[in-house]
Task: inverse folding
């Protein structure tokens, strides 16, 4: 039985482990002991922000998935709020069990609770499986996602 | 001479006018007199949020452009902050003068000031000119931008 809850500080090591256990994530995360303090600093900023939630999926006591969801008020679309999902990962041991879909469905339910008119995310064009996954869940691939490193 | 400042409540009518003066925007905005209250509600939410800024470009007293920028702490990328730009418009009378590029450059400078490692945006695949515009400014089209209406 899977349940979802807001991440706590003690989940952070496990969260970074999942983020790093990924082709792209392994190149940009630092899953080290002790964890680099930058992660706790980000955790605290998210935790303090009422429009930002870090959510974990748990099976019993084990954290098996994570995503971050941000709620943003915009002037566009008649002043509508949007939810943005980012940093979605499930632990490799549970892949193939549909946990990823449950994570996203949970994110969608949070977006609805908050009255968002839209839920959005970007996915790296290299992640062709992820694109198909999101399209199966009902996302429309209508936009280009542009990034600039600073 | 163009200058930038945070939008004030009295700019809102002009901002919605610019958002609506656009092929896609005209289908989804309501530039009416009086302005539907949903816009002021969104303005107040943005104004109250320290991680969210509505910025206008002005020439003398005239508002000639607008964009919204949101600063978000993430766990991914070693706890890096990102800036997301949305709702970029210039007034039709000034198009062709490079004002759009100045808007985005201003957004990039705000993102740098806030220590963001990345600035990002999505653009509708139907806006082929916009895609070329952002690529010329140095954005990489690395991601798919997926949306789901709720």
Result:
């Amino acid at each position: 039985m899977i349940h979802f809850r807001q991440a706590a500080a003690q989940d952070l090591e496990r969260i970074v482990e999942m983020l790093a256990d990924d082709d792209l994530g392994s190149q940009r995360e630092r899953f080290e002991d002790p964890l680099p303090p930058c992660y706790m600093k980000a955790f605290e900023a998210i935790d303090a922000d009422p429009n930002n939630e870090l959510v974990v999926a748990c099976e019993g006591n084990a954290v098996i998935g994570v995503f971050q969801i941000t709620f943003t008020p915009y002037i566009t679309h008649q002043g509508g709020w949007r939810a943005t999902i980012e940093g979605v990962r499930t632990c490799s041991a549970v892949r193939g069990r549909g946990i990823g879909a449950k994570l996203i469905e949970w994110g969608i339910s949070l977006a609805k609770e908050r009255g968002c008119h839209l839920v959005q995310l970007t996915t790296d064009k290299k992640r062709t499986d992820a694109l198909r996954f999101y399209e199966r869940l009902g996302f429309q691939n209508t936009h280009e996602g542009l990034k600039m490193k600073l």
Q: What stands out?
A: DSSP finds six helices and six strands in chain A. Chain A has a mean pLDDT of 95.
